[in-house]
Design a protein that fits this description.
Blueprint: E1 34-35, E2 41-43, E3 46-47, H1 48-55, E4 59-63, H2 64-83, E5 89-94, H3 101-109, E6 113-116, H4 119-127, E7 135-137, H5 144-153, E8 157-160, H6 163-176, E9 180-187, E10 209-210, H7 214-223, E11 227-233, H8 244-259, E12 268-270, H9 288-306, E13 312-315, H10 319-322, E14 326-341, E15 344-351, H11 360-364, E16 371-372, E17 381-387, E18 396-404, E19 412-416, E20 437-441, E21 444-449, H12 454-458, H13 462-469, H14 477-480, H15 485-492
Parallel strand pairs: 4-20, 5-6, 5-13, 6-7, 7-8, 8-9, 9-10, 9-11, 11-12, 12-13, 15-17
Antiparallel strand pairs: 1-2, 2-3, 4-14, 14-15, 14-19, 16-19, 17-18, 20-21
The chain binds pyridoxal-5'-phosphate.
Pyridoxal-5'-phosphate binds next to helix 10.
Length: 495
């Protein structure tokens, strides 16, 4: 059944039947994405078919130029907006969006600082050679060992999240005779217009301090020898399209900031990240330049009203740096028209990954788009749902998309805007190995994070090793594994 003859009710209201179901909406795809003369999707100048031939599916592809472009763009936007008010801006890349050493090098090359929120993320940033003084360390439950390591390596700033942490960190700096710059995370009470699970400024949540509790916490920090209070920190949520929430939050935080100046100068105000990106052609996020200007203007206005000097600003964009640069390639295994009622059919397109490489649809109801990557098709578009191979009915990759009606097993499907919070949230559900990450640039592709194999996963099973070590007759790993074709190819790649 073609799109024209399908009942509209199955399609979400925002989804329109595309004029061309092969088209690549510029807001959603990396800037280097196009189709070659055979209609094959190219990423960073390389055909998707070639990438899959070399690295298998599923495959995370990251366009290096696109990451660098978005890093520069964010830095320029926040610097320019702040400079208009005579202050500086520091832009931290929020590593939680996608972290590996290569990405740390790209963004630090472009002039960004990096924020990390666990000892593991800190280790990656350090392994990449990042300057520790340009690292920020977050987290609502940092362990003593993580704080110790952060102080030991000389992390630039630590964002304190609880009263307990003030004492925990205080004891460490006192013992070490160190001085540590700290910020205090506060909840502005502004509810970002976004999915509830992402709205981290609600009061009934685990992060930070309520505005009214912050003065006592700051007073305590100022008492502790070795802790240097440099500013407030606030992050109101993620995937936010408009400026209004940021402006309102900035106003509330500046009021608190002003009330704390009696205890000493406060040089910095960190307003976090949360800047939205387009996941589908229907999304229309405010450009980062406009957001940056509106936020900086709001802070300047509030400072002026109160007659206080404007602090330097800091921001922590994650998704907006890497989101659009990432594309996930899958191979179609099965297609299944499912009859929902008389005359109402949904086409299920099953791919060889799913919620293990992208849990965002299952976690947040996130919407994505998709295209056939291995060819163009003139077939009339049909409403399809791209699903994974996991044992969950919520294992959805793309909830609703018009794909050419002749989509079939063996086709490659590309899902754009998967650069943020897919690799970082990936799991091994159903013992599915996590895919490799391949960076593309100028017609070259290279593995920047190797993929897992089933052997990697089995190797963690203590029972397997124990039995082997005790000499009990068990099949060796290589006998029991049965690798899929792409996995076998992937293993042949240099690691
Ligand atoms: C404190 C903090 N800063 C920055 C970010 C990055 O947010 P985004 O990737 O939406 O820009 C997050 C995301 O959860 C966060 O918790």
């Amino acid at each position: 059944m073609s799109a024209a003859s399908q009942p509209r009710t199955l399609a979400p209201s925002w989804l329109v039947v595309p004029d061309d179901a092969n088209g690549l909406a510029p807001a959603v795809w990396p800037s280097g994405a196009d189709r070659d003369d055979d209609g094959v999707l190219r990423l960073g100048g390389i055909a998707a078919t070639e990438l899959v031939e070399r690295f298998g599916t599923p495959l995370y592809v990251l366009d290096e130029d696109d990451v660098r472009h978005h890093a520069r763009r964010a830095l320029d936007a926040f610097r320019a907006a702040s400079a208009l008010h005579g202050v500086q801006a520091r832009v931290y890349y929020a590593g939680k969006a996608f972290l590996c050493t290569e990405v740390v090098r790209w963004v630090t090359d472009e002039g960004l600082a990096v924020d990390v929120c666990t000892g593991g993320e800190l280790a990656v940033a350090l392994a990449a050679g990042a300057d520790p003084t340009r690292l920020g360390f977050h987290g609502s439950n940092k362990s003593a060992a993580e704080l110790e390591r952060a102080v030991e390596v000389g992390v630039g700033s630590i964002v304190i999240d609880s009263l307990l942490e003030i004492e925990r960190l205080g004891a460490i700096v006192e013992r070490r005779g160190a001085t540590q710059n700290v910020l205090l995370r506060v909840n502005s009470g502004v509810h970002a217009e976004t999915h509830d699970f992402l709205a981290t400024a609600h009061e009934d949540q685990k992060f930070g301090f309520a505005l009214e509790d912050a003065p006592a916490a700051v007073a305590r920090i100022r008492e502790v020898t070795g802790l240097s209070f440099i500013g407030l920190h606030c992050h109101i949520g993620s995937q936010i399209f408009g400026a209004a929430g940021f402006e309102e939050s900035a106003a509330r935080i500046v009021e608190l900031h002003a009330s704390l100046l009696g205890g000493g100068a406060i040089p910095v105000l960190n307003l976090g990240g949360g800047f939205g990106i387009a996941y589908t052609a229907a999304d229309d996020p405010t450009p980062i330049e406009e957001l940056a200007a509106r936020i900086a203007d709001a802070v300047a206005r509030e400072c002026e009203v109160r007659g206080i000097p404007m602090p330097h600003l800091a921001f922590e964009p994650g998704r907006t740096i890497v989101g659009q640069a990432g594309v996930t390639l899958y191979e179609v295994g099965t297609t299944k028209p499912v009859v929902l009622s008389e005359g109402v059919t949904r086409l299920y397109v099953s791919v060889d990954g799913g919620m293990s490489d992208n849990p965002r649809a299952a976690l947040y109801g996130a919407q994505y788009s998709a295209r056939i990557a291995s060819r163009e098709s003139a077939a009339a578009p049909v409403l399809a749902r791209v699903v994974g191979k996991h044992c969950e009915s919520g294992d959805i990759v793309v909830d609703a998309e018009y794909l050419p009606g002749d989509i079939a097993p063996g086709d490659l499907v590309a899902v754009p805007a998967t650069g943020a919070y897919c690799f970082s949230l990936a799991s091994n559900y159903n013992y599915v190995p996590r895919p490799p990450v391949v960076a593309v640039r100028g017609g070259e592709a290279r593995v920047i994070v190797r993929g897992e194999t089933v052997d990697d996963l089995i190797a963690r099973d203590a029972g397997v090793h124990q039995t082997s070590m005790e000499g009990t007759k068990v099949p060796v790993l290589s006998e029991r594994r049965s690798l899929s074709e792409p996995q076998a190819r992937r293993n042949a790649e240099p690691k």
